[in-house]
Design brief:
26% strand, five-stranded mixed β-sheet, 245 residues, Alpha/beta knot, 2 domains, alpha/beta
């Protein structure tokens, strides 16, 4: 079922059930009353990543207190996307963009990976989660990705389950076409790995190429920034072996 983009959507960190009033937080009160300028009995769509999407009504108890009253389930909760997104952190502004686009493109797990040439760092998981929620609110997405703690690339690969294939963007590939490599993938469980701006080190390249559960792919003849490469890789994976089929 397609999302209704004519109504305002709001993520709630609370259980949702029919006619079970939810007290809006101070931040939500400010957003609903002062930013959106909604009035008594205004209708919005709410979701929490577990209970589906609901149409809800606002009840103003005072200028600083609002109850959100769920009234009707509009979309059931879908299965959580199973594509894991593994990425070397970028600088803050581009990192925000990267997280938002990964959610839009179907990431179910967001995993920062520290590589030898990484240029950014994760200073706040809460910021990553907030960007994921914002993307979900704006794009009609009901499943909020799991955001994991940063991990070193070598540690990640040592503990990686071999039944989940990692697809990573290899700027040293002999071809520009990723389709043949992707069509050869038979696993249903997938992960996308995007390296840092400076690329993977030679040691990391050797490590990745030597693992049976890793598939390198090119992304065409052009040099792409890491955030652009992520969107391009998501698109080709979803189109060839993902949920666009």
């Amino acid at each position: 079922m397609r999302a209704n983009f004519r109504m305002q959507r709001l993520y709630l960190d609370a259980p949702i059930s029919a006619n079970g009033p939810i007290q809006a937080t101070d931040e939500q009160v400010n957003y609903l009353a002062n930013v959106l300028r909604l009035q008594e009995a205004a209708e919005i769509l709410i979701f929490n990543g577990f209970d589906g999407e609901w149409k809800a009504r606002l009840a103003f108890q005072s200028r600083k207190k609002i109850q959100i009253i769920p009234e009707e389930l509009t979309r059931p909760q879908p299965e959580q996307p199973d594509l894991h997104y593994l990425f070397a952190p970028l600088k803050v502004g581009r990192l925000d963009y990267l997280i938002q686009k990964s959610v839009e493109m179907g990431a179910g797990v967001i995993q920062p990976v520290m590589t030898q040439h990484v240029q950014g760092k994760i200073t706040s998981l809460d910021r990553l989660k907030a960007n994921a929620v914002e993307a979900a609110e704006q794009c009609g997405i009901l499943a909020i990705p799991e955001v994991r703690e940063p991990i070193k690339l070598a540690t990640l690969l040592e503990t990686w389950p071999p039944d989940r294939r990692i697809i990573y963007c290899d700027e040293g590939a002999d071809t520009n076409n990723p389709l043949d490599a992707l069509r050869a993938v038979t696993e249903k469980k997938l992960a996308l790995l995007i390296g840092p701006e400076g690329g993977f080190s030679e040691e990391e390249q050797r490590l990745l190429r030597g693992l049976e559960f890793v598939t390198p792919i090119p992304l065409g003849p052009r040099i792409l920034r890491a955030d652009t490469a992520a969107v391009a890789a998501f698109a080709v994976i979803q189109a060839v072996i993902g949920d666009w089929r």
